[in-house]
Write a sequence for this structure.
């Protein structure tokens, strides 16, 4: 782990649609460029990523996607128009940021939702990507969303029952993400707050493998809780605004780009099969399977160590 140096450049980039995205650049101004696409959707940039990149070598770009972090307008405001927040918008924002920073090519890293976005970005702009690092691999397919919102009930039947009962009875057998998103956009504040609580309770339970009252997590903040729930359900309720097999159908466009896929065998929310299938179709990618890891990337765990090794590999 490297010292978490302060950014030498940061700002708000106007990307159109009355949207401004927040970014930070740290490390070596003349170093090898790298960018991190954060997960969520809706979590915002995490300064801890700086600790994985040697500040003497890398020019590291962190940014918050539309509606989250310091980017404006915030998804935590029920009045913010979420129709202007889609996967294609985020891909275009990343490209505008690259151009704004005068970067020709950069290493792209993204985990969880960030992996779907990173892959979609690289597919559209392969000539702007030097390498790709993907921990906790996802591809935004409908079956992946169905698994995390319903299939996991096989392992968590008690939590799933409470989660399913959080929406009206007529919506319980349909698209649960979309049903929750409707509640999160209700004009009634109490309805929105309860939906945010119920959604995140399910999300955290499946990630940690058990119950959690939000204490000591980002979900403890009701504003963050609402922002995350509203953004995630917006994307998952709309199949991540991608054609069902978009990532898989276009992996040939990554030919010649070296990559490392890192996945925990015990990842409940994102079964290993997605990473396995992508590795089969992307010959330039190495698949690292971690037998002792799940979905979370925590300081010092095997997922964190594997990411650090991949970054060092592409140094």
């Amino acid at each position: 782990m490297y010292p978490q140096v302060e950014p030498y450049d940061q700002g708000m980039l106007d990307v159109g649609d009355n949207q401004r995205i927040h970014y930070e650049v740290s490390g070596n101004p003349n170093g090898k460029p790298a960018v991190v696409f954060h997960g969520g959707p809706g979590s915002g940039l995490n300064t801890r990523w700086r600790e994985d990149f040697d500040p003497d070598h890398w020019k590291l770009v962190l940014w918050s996607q539309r509606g989250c972090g310091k980017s404006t307008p915030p998804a935590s405001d029920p009045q913010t128009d979420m129709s202007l927040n889609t996967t294609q918008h985020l891909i275009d924002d990343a490209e505008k940021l690259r151009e704004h920073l005068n970067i020709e090519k950069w290493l792209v890293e993204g985990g969880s939702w960030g992996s779907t976005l990173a892959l979609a970005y690289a597919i559209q702009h392969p000539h702007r990507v030097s390498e790709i690092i993907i921990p906790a691999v996802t591809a935004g397919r409908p079956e992946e969303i169905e698994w995390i919102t319903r299939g996991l009930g096989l392992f968590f039947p008690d939590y799933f029952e409470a989660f399913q009962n959080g929406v009206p009875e007529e919506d319980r057998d349909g698209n649960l993400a979309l049903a929750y998103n409707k509640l999160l956009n209700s004009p009634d504040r109490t309805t929105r707050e309860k939906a945010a609580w119920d959604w995140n309770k399910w999300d955290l339970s499946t990630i940690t493998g058990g119950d959690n009252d939000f204490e000591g997590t980002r979900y403890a903040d009701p504003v963050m809780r609402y922002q995350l729930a509203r953004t995630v359900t917006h994307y998952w309720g709309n199949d991540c605004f991608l054609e069902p097999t978009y990532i898989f159908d276009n992996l040939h466009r990554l030919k010649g780009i070296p990559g490392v896929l890192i996945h925990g065998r015990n990842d409940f929310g994102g079964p290993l099969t997605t990473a396995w299938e992508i590795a089969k179709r992307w010959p330039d990618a190495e698949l690292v399977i971690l037998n002792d890891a799940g979905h979370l990337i925590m300081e010092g765990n095997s997922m964190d160590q594997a990411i650090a090794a991949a970054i060092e590999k592409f140094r």
